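Need residues for this backbone.
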């Protein structure tokens, strides 16, 4: 949330509710809508850390509002975020840990775990399809976000198939071995 708010403020000064609306417009229903309280807490922290500065604006018929703008330190921080690659594939995968450790526990079956994970991925994929159908066709950012999530899920499904095909034989021989 911090970096998204900084990016929006790099474009122009805004108050909390404007930032909430900008996030919702940019990402559509594909991205969880931020809570306005969370936005104001985050703005307070950004201001406290010197990345933004706020100024109270008097309003005659409403309570005063606080308008925020990015500082030079904020721009540098944001530029550093844009320059840094995003984390790639996860090597410490919780599902794979379950898959490797399950037989020694006697609590879970590997094939059942693969089937359960596959059902979860397919269910999530159906949810994404419904979300894409309901999303405004003109919101390309939201559609790209949904498409990216669907492609990640498809890769997970392909990987689950590979786990099932390639490792099932070798794992059955190791199921009797103790961990460690």
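Answer:
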């Amino acid at each position: 949330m911090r970096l998204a708010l900084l990016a929006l403020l790099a474009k122009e000064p805004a108050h909390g509710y404007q930032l909430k609306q900008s996030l919702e417009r940019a990402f559509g229903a594909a991205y969880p809508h931020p809570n306005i309280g969370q936005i104001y807490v985050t703005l307070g922290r950004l201001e406290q850390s010197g990345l933004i500065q706020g100024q109270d604006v008097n309003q005659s018929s409403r309570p005063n509002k606080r308008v925020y703008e990015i500082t030079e330190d904020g721009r540098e921080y944001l530029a550093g975020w844009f320059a840094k690659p995003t984390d790639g594939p996860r090597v410490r995968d919780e599902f794979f840990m379950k898959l490797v450790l399950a037989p020694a526990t006697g609590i879970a079956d590997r094939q059942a775990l693969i089937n359960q994970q596959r059902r979860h991925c397919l269910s999530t994929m159906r949810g994404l399809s419904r979300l894409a159908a309901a999303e405004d066709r003109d919101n390309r950012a939201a559609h790209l976000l949904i498409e990216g999530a669907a492609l990640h899920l498809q890769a997970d499904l392909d990987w689950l198939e590979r786990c099932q095909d390639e490792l099932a034989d070798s794992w059955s021989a190791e199921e009797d071995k103790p961990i460690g």
